[in-house]
């Protein structure tokens, strides 16, 4: 059988991990291993291989000499072959079948949709626990074959594969704990429910950047479909428009972590409002959008929720409001306190034996105040000295000697006094 054209896995391995390019380092913690090779092997003592091999974007199209792969990769546990030119599953199988301790395999952005994955080839992946097939355009038939042959698969990455639907596998995958299926086009919740059927032990479901619409499922059904779901990521689910969809998340019996940024429902709220309203509606979560929800924050959010809805018409008040009123009682509205800094004050301006009450802006400088007073005291700004007297200060008047200093920095309040004196020549 003719060997496929292009660079082989073994050729790239030899180039990257030769002693010249990847020198062997002795000492604890270096993670470098030189495996024993068969007697007489031309590759003997040439390669210094770590247990994690990164061979991405190397133009690999085929496996190469399987005997040499087996000789050098017996200790390898992680293999990154992303962004290569592997299009034949048989060639991938030749590599993987000779890496007996492989647990992590990344095949992202290889054109593997051009060939069919047969079950005997998929059997060589049996020990893999984490498999990445992002942007491989792997069909659901390929995924089903993998699921049947990988009994210990725990994490599966299927991002950027242009999925619009989900095809159910004929068998359930009891081992899978994490499914990363972002950046596809899964719009209808009837497709998402199939994931619950296929992966009943799912702990983490990452659905970000899909166009997911409303969650059309009964509470009992959601609990049956995702009985072990602890974390869900719904970032940028463009079709989530109503709070009822958020309330449905409470149906997952073990849900603790939720990510919900960039959905249309939340766009009209401030950042603070979004977080508090979500926390109050989701009583079981302990982490929201990556941040821990502390006990004090939960109570603040739930009290905020009560006050937020207390003036709504009865028909618009969510059921959660009544639950929280039962917990905290009916709360008084918070007093409205204007914390904005004062923009102007009324002061007494003293010049010689004249006293005039004036309103002055606090955003102006001392120099600008002098211009304002020029017509009142009949002095030029260069011939004018200003002194500020805080009515409660024990130290007497303070000279306002810095022309560029803003008036608000003096802490001037209503009723304080400003004295104007001519500069002595």
TrEMBL record:
<keyword id="KW-0433">Leucine-rich repeat</keyword>
<dbReference type="InterPro" id="IPR047991">
    <property type="entry name" value="TBCEL_Ubl"/>
</dbReference>
<keyword id="KW-0597">Phosphoprotein</keyword>
<keyword id="KW-0206">Cytoskeleton</keyword>
<dbReference type="Pfam" id="PF14560">
    <property type="entry name" value="Ubiquitin_2"/>
</dbReference>
<keyword id="KW-0175">Coiled coil</keyword>
<protein>
    <recommendedName>
        <fullName>Leucine-rich repeat-containing protein 51</fullName>
    </recommendedName>
</protein>
<dbReference type="InterPro" id="IPR000626">
    <property type="entry name" value="Ubiquitin-like_dom"/>
</dbReference>
<dbReference type="GO" id="GO:0005856">
    <property type="term" value="C:cytoskeleton"/>
</dbReference>
<keyword id="KW-0677">Repeat</keyword>
<dbReference type="InterPro" id="IPR029071">
    <property type="entry name" value="Ubiquitin-like_domsf"/>
</dbReference>
<dbReference type="InterPro" id="IPR001611">
    <property type="entry name" value="Leu-rich_rpt"/>
</dbReference>
<keyword id="KW-0963">Cytoplasm</keyword>
<feature type="domain" description="Ubiquitin-like">
    <location>
        <begin position="349"/>
        <end position="421"/>
    </location>
</feature>
<comment type="function">
    <text>Acts as a regulator of tubulin stability.</text>
</comment>
<dbReference type="InterPro" id="IPR032675">
    <property type="entry name" value="LRR_dom_sf"/>
</dbReference>
